[in-house]
Amino acid sequence: MTEPVTKPRTAFTKDERGILNNWAIEPKMYVDQGDDRFGLTEYAELINGRLAMVGFVGLVVIELVTGKGLLQIIGF
């Protein structure tokens, strides 16, 4: 009984005419379907909260430096 001959798997294959094809094995393609970053999402609300905190601290710093409130600075 003879053992079947197995060819080693390589990235090179030949077509029916015997022409070498270097790019026969292509990597599997996929689409990353991660979290949405737009719209009313948890991530958007987190960014909104952080920006609001930065703005509030900025206003407090401006009041401490100038000695005037925001309404006095803009002319009301």
UniProtKB/TrEMBL annotation:
InterPro entries: Chloroa_b-bind, Psb34-like. The keyword Acyltransferase does not apply. Coiled coil: none annotated. The keyword Transmembrane applies. It comes from the Bacteria. Keywords: Membrane, Transmembrane, Transmembrane helix. The chain crosses the membrane at residues 51-71. This is Chlorophyll a/b-binding protein. It comes from Pseudanabaena catenata USMAC16. The lineage of its organism: Bacteria, Bacillati, Cyanobacteriota, Cyanophyceae, Pseudanabaenales.
